[in-house]
């Protein structure tokens, strides 16, 4: 040791010169470990932290929630208490869930030509950002809005303006706002990625990304049932908004037909998109590293659990869902890897 130090003193190496180091890197959240992230939208009814245990119990390692009632204008700021937020953040860390995606209120329409609704929308979205930051969310998803006769170009600039007004005075930090593609129902903006791109371009000072919804893609006319169709959609997304801006994929099968422009979600594999297409989507190299979040219907008890399990199976992993009151067994949650040589084997019963 002493010998080495002595030798180092004799020769000057520019690399040895003292330079003030960079500030310590921010702590990397445990969910950014490169593992596959499968999540589901869970309810905050009763207790907001209960949504975390629910997602964990369903076998998910990521989740999406509403941070308040999704179809009501909340009166006043509707803040989350500091105690509730702290409990939520602590429980989320314990369960290593991430990313945490918050879906904005459905009533928000930043493109509304009505001054009253537009003001409510900007204020409502401002509060969405405040609550998302309080909960330590990674992403806040918002539907761009509906033009309602005002024309797409006017709507696009109204949305961009509205996003800026809503974010004014807030420090987003690591959190990103994601614009979701739409089915193109009515006059909704965002069924074409060029429209999302125009909004992104007009808001370069806000940290904005994109969320793609498979059911919306399909209803908007992208035939993602085939490999070629999926590649064509991904290429179009890449040419417009850029795939690197896509952070979350809403994984929903579609009850409605290709190009129907009607948004109706269906259980994975039971809709018009089909199970094979979801296998390609979950394993597509261009979508690696994204969080896959289910927004599938719950019609029968266990539907949510079955949809989560279906996605894990498509990735080649089987994850045990944990029943209420049962202790999680982290080591066994991801058990056998069934994927062999790029093909997914069907799991036979009894094995
Ligand atoms: Zn969605
Ligand atoms: Zn939808």
Can you characterise this structure?
The chain is of the alpha/beta class. It has one domain (30-320): TIM Barrel, CATH 3.20.20.150. The protein has helices spanning 2-10, 50-57, 82-95, 115-134, 152-167, 193-202, 214-219, 227-240, 275-283, 303-314, 330-333, and strands at residues 37-41, 62-65, 100-103, 139-142, 145-146, 176-180, 188-189, 208-213, 246-251, 253-254, 265-266, 291-294, 317-319, 334-337, 339-340, 343-344. The longest helix is centred in the middle third of the chain and has 20 residues, at 115-134. Residues 1-8 and 325-351 have low confidence and may be disordered. The protein binds zinc ion (2 copies). One zinc ion (ZN) is lined by residues 213, 215-216, 263, 265.
Question: Could you list some keywords that capture this structure?
Answer:
351 residues; alpha/beta; TIM Barrel; 8-stranded parallel β-barrel; two-stranded antiparallel ribbon; 11 helices; 16 strands; 35% helix; disordered N terminus; disordered C terminus; binds zinc ion
* Fraction of residues in H or I helices: 25-40%
Instruction: State the shape.
Output: globular
Q: Which segments are poorly predicted (pLDDT under 50) over 5 or more consecutive residues?
A: 1-8, 325-351
Roughly how many Å apart are the termini? 57 Å
- CATH architectural grouping: Alpha-Beta Barrel
Short description:
The chain contains 11 helices and 16 strands. It has helices at 2-10, 50-57, 82-95, 115-134, 152-167, 193-202, 214-219, 227-240, 275-283, 303-314, 330-333, and strands at residues 37-41, 62-65, 100-103, 139-142, 145-146, 176-180, 188-189, 208-213, 246-251, 253-254, 265-266, 291-294, 317-319, 334-337, 339-340, 343-344.
